[in-house]
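Thread: quick sanity check before group meeting

JM: Hey all, I'm pulling together slides for Thursday and realized we never actually wrote out the predicted structure for the chain we discussed last week. Dropping the sequence here so it's in one place. If anyone has concerns about the input, flag it before I start.
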Amino acid sequence: MQKQITGIEASSSREWWDHQETFVRDHIQQFVQRLLVEEVTRRLGRAKSVRRVAVDAAAGSRNG
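JM (edit): ok, ran it. Output follows.
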């Protein structure tokens, strides 16, 4: 037997799932952003907005 969900319960459930989806998406985006920043920092050998100090430093640029 299937149980019918009333309009109020369905709306509340949908809002809860929307909130959970937004929460998870935000955290995944932050995680990926941290990974990318860490990878670029390691590859270039310097932090964001820091200029190269040596002529023979790793090639590449950071905007920003």
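AS: nice. Residues 44 and 56 are 12 Å apart (CA to CA). Residues 7-44 form the longest helix (38 residues).
JM: adding both to the slides.
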